[in-house]
């Protein structure tokens, strides 16, 4: 086995790893990037970009074939040269294959061992989670990855899991003419979000034709010649296709965590505020358990790069991590929900506003809500949710308010352009 001395090894080139490798190489460091799949990770090939193209086409009333063509165009038919090329131009040495830690600052891949003077940055990401349902593994079920390769929509679809991916794709497919049943084991869809948000989106989906079943126990899945049979709550549902959307599983199997003193069976890689996980090991992205978001992975990569280069902070701060579910209307959220704030022991104040009662909401005949959560003792927002058309864009003010701890009194006396969805935030602040 050959040995190569370098400065940094980046193990996993999803969004965060790709960003870190590029930035580190630009400083003149000898950087090796190791990736077994497509460089760029989930977001450009199966997640962010293609899913939003599919959703956009469904909203516009395009046919499915046009959406499929745009997805192939956007990700270059699942070829990663658009990501690999800039890395190599920056000086990153790319190694294809399954990399494995072999002690502090050391990675084995193929027949080579790379010894990193500064250390290793871990960014192995996640994969679609698959529940332990009898018979499921023996069927040609879809995950979100399979959806992005389809040329035509199925006539009928059962979606197992009503988190962000399940809700988004259920709505997209029903708009393409598919008969959709959405199954959720929990009491409501979009479980991590505010219950008011889930209520709005449930109402919209049902009006558009999605059958929603909560508290649903799926006990078996079978595939027959003409489709699938799903056993749920003692009944059987027939569908042309089944989509499994129950979340993500960490890619932590067989990456050598035990060689650096970490538990390979732990559900995440714990890090400090500098993204340090162990001796000469940094970790970023989904595997840190702070959120499965591209923007968060890049943010963490920026923190890790500063630490690797011996620079000062700022270090990682997760108080104001924004997230968006791209249903129509969108669900944009930041910080703590009301339930989380109360569980944290805060004296909570809550304000709400109905988007439909705002001028822009009435004009647009839009469904939605704004909900703000404040720490009443400090007089600052600790969380907020916007359900509205372009809710992810409206979220910007609330993200800034939570991050910068802007006093509620200051927010109340701002100018809010009229008539905008953004203006509904003023009404929610007035309701605190």
Spell out the blueprint of helices and strands.
Blueprint: E1 2-11, H1 15-26, E2 31-35, H2 42-45, H3 48-60, H4 64-74, H5 81-90, E3 93-96, E4 99-101, E5 106-109, E6 112-122, E7 126-128, H6 144-147, E8 156-160, H7 164-175, E9 179-183, H8 195-208, E10 211-213, E11 218-224, E12 227-232, E13 235-239, E14 241-244, E15 248-250, E16 276-278, E17 281-283, H9 294-308, E18 322-325, E19 330-335, H10 338-343, E20 348-354, H11 359-364, E21 369-375, E22 380-388, H12 391-404, H13 408-412, H14 424-430
Helix pairs in contact: 1-5, 1-9, 3-4, 3-7
Task: Please provide a written account of the structure.
- The N and C termini lie far apart (65 Å).
- A hairpin with a 4-residue loop joins strand 4 and strand 5 (106-109).
- The chain has helices spanning 15-26, 42-45, 48-60, 64-74, 81-90, 144-147, 164-175, 195-208, 294-308, 338-343, 359-364, 391-404, 408-412, 424-430; strands at residues 2-11, 31-35, 93-96, 99-101, 106-109, 112-122, 126-128, 156-160, 179-183, 211-213, 218-224, 227-232, 235-239, 241-244, 248-250, 276-278, 281-283, 322-325, 330-335, 348-354, 369-375, 380-388.
- The mean pLDDT is 97.
- It folds into 3 domains: 2-40 and 80-127 and 249-308, FAD/NAD(P)-binding domain (3-Layer(bba) Sandwich); 136-246, FAD/NAD(P)-binding domain; 322-430, 2-Layer Sandwich (Enolase-like, domain 1).
- It is globular, with a radius of gyration of 23 Å.
- Strands 1, 2, 3, 4, 5, 6, 16 and 17 form an 8-stranded mixed sheet that branches. Strands 18-19-22-21-20 form a 5-stranded antiparallel sheet, with helices on both faces.
- By secondary structure, it is of the alpha/beta class.
- The longest helix has 15 residues, at 294-308.
- It is built from 14 helices and 22 strands.
- 31% of the residues lie in helices and 27% in strands.
């Amino acid at each position: 086995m050959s040995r190569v001395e370098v400065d940094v090894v980046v193990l996993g080139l999803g969004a965060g790893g790709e960003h870190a490798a590029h930035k580190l190489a630009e400083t003149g460091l000898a950087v090796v990037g190791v990736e077994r799949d497509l460089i760029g990770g989930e977001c450009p090939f199966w997640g962010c970009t293609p899913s939003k193209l599919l959703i956009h086409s469904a909203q516009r009333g395009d046919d499915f074939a046009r959406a499929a063509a745009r997805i192939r165009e956007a990700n270059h038919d699942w070829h990663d040269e658009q990501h690999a090329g800039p890395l190599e131009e920056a000086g990153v040495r790319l190694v294809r294959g399954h990399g494995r830690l072999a002690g502090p600052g050391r990675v084995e891949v193929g027949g080579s061992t790379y010894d990193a003077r500064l250390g290793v940055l871990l960014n192995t990401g996640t994969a679609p989670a698959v529940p332990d349902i009898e018979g499921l593994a023996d069927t040609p079920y879809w995950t979100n990855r399979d959806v992005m390769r389809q040329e035509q929509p199925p006539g009928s679809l059962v979606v197992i899991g009503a988190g962000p991916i399940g809700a988004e794709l259920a709505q997209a497919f029903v708009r393409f003419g598919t008969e959709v049943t959405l199954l959720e084991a929990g009491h409501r869809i979009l479980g991590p979000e505010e219950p008011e948000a889930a209520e709005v989106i449930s109402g919209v989906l049902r009006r558009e034709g999605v059958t929603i079943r909560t508290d649903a126990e799926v006990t078996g899945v079978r595939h027959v010649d003409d489709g699938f049979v799903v056993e749920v709550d003692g009944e059987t549902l027939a569908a042309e296709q089944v989509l499994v959307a129950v979340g993500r599983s960490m890619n932590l199997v067989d990456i050598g965590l035990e060689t650096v003193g970490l538990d390979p069976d732990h559900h995440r890689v714990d890090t400090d505020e500098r993204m340090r996980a162990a001796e000469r090991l940094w970790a970023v992205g989904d595997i840190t358990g702070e959120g499965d978001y591209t923007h968060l992975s890049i943010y963490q990569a920026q923190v890790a790069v500063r630490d690797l280069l011996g620079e000062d902070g700022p270090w990682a701060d997760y108080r104001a991590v924004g997230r968006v579910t791209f249903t129509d209307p969108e669900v944009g959220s930041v910080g703590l929900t009301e339930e989380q704030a109360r569980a944290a022991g805060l004296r909570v104040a809550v304000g709400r506003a109905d988007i439909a009662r705002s001028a822009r909401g009435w004009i647009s005949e839009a469904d939605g809500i704004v909900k703000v959560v404040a720490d009443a003792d400090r007089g600052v927002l600790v969380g907020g949710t916007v359900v509205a058309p372009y809710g992810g864009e409206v979220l910007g003010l609330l993200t800034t308010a939570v991050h910068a701890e802007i006093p509620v009194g200051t927010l109340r006396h701002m100018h809010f352009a009229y008539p905008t969805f953004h203006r509904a935030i003023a009404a929610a602040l007035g309701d605190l």
